[in-house]
Specification:
By secondary structure, the protein is α/β, with parallel strands linked by helices. The protein folds into 3 domains: 1-96 and 197-217, D-Maltodextrin-Binding Protein, domain 2; 103-184, Periplasmic binding protein-like II (D-Maltodextrin-Binding Protein, domain 2), CATH 3.40.190; 218-304, 2-Layer Sandwich (Double Stranded RNA Binding Domain), CATH 3.30.160. The protein has 10 helices and 13 strands. It has a 5-stranded mixed beta sheet, with helices on both faces. It has a 5-stranded mixed beta sheet with strand order 7-6-8-5-9, sandwiched between helices.
Amino acid sequence: MKIKVGTRGSKLALAQTNSVIASLQKIVPGLEAEVDVIKTKGDVLADVSLLQIGGQGVFVKEIEEALLSGAIDLAVHSMKDVPGEVPEGLAFPAILKREDMRDVLVSRGNIKFEFLPKGAKIGTGSLRRGAQIKSFMPDVDIVPLRGNIDTRLKKIETENLTGVILAAAGMKRLGYAGRISQFLPPEIMLPAVGQGALGLQARQGDTALIELCAKLNDSVTAAEVGAERAYLRALGGGCRLPIAAYGLIEKGRLSLEGFLAAPDGSDYVRDKVWGEPGEAEALGNELAEIILEKGGRRLLELMC
């Protein structure tokens, strides 16, 4: 079997893709895999805020188009970048075992989140992160930040920032765990939908490839991320409001916690539901309805 694998060109994306290829080659020795680096809108417009260029989907659209056209056979995505709706003709045969889903603080002098001074300059390009920080600490100054992990880390010095917020999974996958000042628990920072999980996307008709990829699927992560994505879709995943969700299977039960906020964090709704792992889709829909009833609908009407 010979396949062409599409991915973004960042150091992190390439590391993730090469890891997936190595896993596939353990199943099929001799599998030939060519990596095709695809520049997405989010990569090309690296200095423009994600909100201005379309929010969700800016890191996957061109890769999905390459899949549909037959230019590539397989795509490796960070699931947090994938919109709630998947184009017709494409499927996710595998969601890989999740890495750490938390966000982390990297700060000058290793200062911890709870000791950030008034007026601290915290860099992030994420509305979700900014809103949750502001909901705890209204006096913190959120500095818009784009670029890969190395670029954002450098900006602590070049932009004179107190610190930056990044995903734990990316820091660990690049071997940067030693630079983390603090892991932020979900009580403080609920993650993005799908954060820490990789997904393999293929054309629905490519049966042999889908069967191969399915061997890498982690059923626990798939259910957790499935619930989160159902929640995102039910809220109208294209909305440009801070949305967060975290699904977790413990002792055979699936919990799902969700968050929806105004961009400045001044108004937000957060709640949690429990159910069976096989009810992931229904659980996401149930949580979305609760969030909407408790004030989310008003936020959506004002902002979307």
